Amino acid sequence: MDLENRKSKLKKAFKENFNSDSTDLFSSSGRMEILGNHTDHNNGLVLVGAVDLDIMAATEKCENEVVLISENYGETKIDLNNLQKVKEEEGTNAALIKGVLFELKELGYHIGGFKAYADSILPAGSGISSSAAFECLIAEIENFYYNNDSMDRYDMAKIGQFSEKEYFGKPCGLLDQCGVAFGGVNLINFKNLNKPVIEHLSINIEPYHIVITNTGGDHSNLTSHYAAIPEEMKSVAKYFHKKVLAKVKKEEFYAALPELRKVVSDRAILRAIHFYDENERVKKGFRSLKNGKIKKFLEMVNESGNSSMEYLQNTCVPGSVTQNINLALALSKHLIHDGACRIHGGGFEGTILAFVHEDELEYYVEAMAEVFGKENVHQISIRNDGSKHLNLNI
């Protein structure tokens, strides 16, 4: 559905549900993790891009409450005078909205009520972060209505992360929220969480196209596996009396291996090796894109994927004979003769990312769709802005 038709649909749905006319339209994109798999939570480097799939909402200001109706999740009402965390709300839209509003207030921003009818074209389970898109959508509406568009983009990302971790109940770093809040392609160095170094880049990767494939699986029971990755990396850092691996020099880490093995698991050490090498790949990949060396960039993507499989070990659920991601990667490597592929996002179940030459694109998409379903294979593009206010008028 094109933009004008989506606007018409949202305006009509808002009118039908709220018996009034919407006054504004907001859009919040999904994000693509280009390089930097599981590095942000240990203050590493990432290369992240906003994508051209989004959550869109028609809205109107109101007093004292937030009322959001979603095609997929029904109606959610939030009383602005009651923003305390409720354990039973974990995993719901109510938790995400309350978490965003609470943290906005804590950081000194103004909050207020609104009505919204939301529609998402982010494919379910696609790994392009619908939760971060939703968090930033709520923050962007509050930013426009009550803060004169003054909100710092990094604050927006941190607010989203707070909501997801503390209210929604899902451990997460800042990659997803930064990708959505900033838009475009960004190299982000999280060494100083209070002031990350962010470098924006406009890219042209022709003649390659970006394809994501949702390989299936359920993330709901995988929280312990996600949480183990940052915990194990931090257990290595703790040996050196540091909180995160970014504070430990790579040479110091390797020199300590004999004694380190007595304190932490081999898997923790392998995950630390991935962290150090992945940071180097992010830098090399960014430089390659900046200098128009697409082939070198694709090398880094392939190396990143191999490292996630071998060292990070997040391409399948431990002990499971169902290995959707590994199968998708193996098939992609068979199909792609000019391009690259890697796991996308947190892992264990979910999505892979591929850069496919235009000469192989149609064949690749058809072959992946035959195995994983046409509805699970999506060609995407980079979007130059993240969360934003749009002109409602057609």
Detailed description of the structure:
There is one protein chain. The chain has 394 residues and is of the alpha+beta class. It is built from 12 helices and 12 strands. Helix 3 (130-146) packs across helix 5 (175-182), helix 4 packs across helix 5 (175-182) and helix 6 crosses helix 9 (266-290). The longest helix is centred in the last third of the chain and has 25 residues, at 266-290. It is globular and about 65 Å long. The relative contact order is 0.17.
Low-confidence runs of at least 5 consecutive residues: none
Count of individual helical segments: 12
User: Averaged pLDDT, please?
Assistant: 93
Strand content is 15-25%
Main beta sheet, described? 8 strands, mixed
Q: Give the radius of gyration.
A: 21 Å
Apparent shape: globular
Structural class: alpha+beta
**Helicity, in percent?**
40-55%
Cα distance, first to last residue?
15 Å
How do the helices and strands follow one another from N- to C-terminus? HEEEEHEHHHEEEHHHHHHEEHEE
Overall number of strands: 12
What is this structure, in a nutshell?
The chain has 394 residues and is α+β, with helices and mostly antiparallel strands. Helices cover 43% and strands 22% of the residues.
Topology (elements, then pairings):
Layout: H1 3-18, E1 24-35, E2 45-62, E3 65-70, E4 74-79, H2 93-106, E5 113-120, H3 130-146, H4 153-168, H5 175-182, E6 185-189, E7 197-201, E8 208-214, H6 223-239, H7 250-255, H8 257-260, H9 266-290, H10 294-312, H11 324-335, E9 339-344, E10 351-357, H12 358-372, E11 377-380, E12 388-390
Parallel strand pairs: 3-5
Antiparallel strand pairs: 1-2, 1-12, 2-5, 2-6, 3-4, 6-7, 8-10, 8-11, 9-10
Helix pairs in contact: 2-3, 2-4, 3-4, 3-5, 4-5, 6-9, 9-10, 11-12
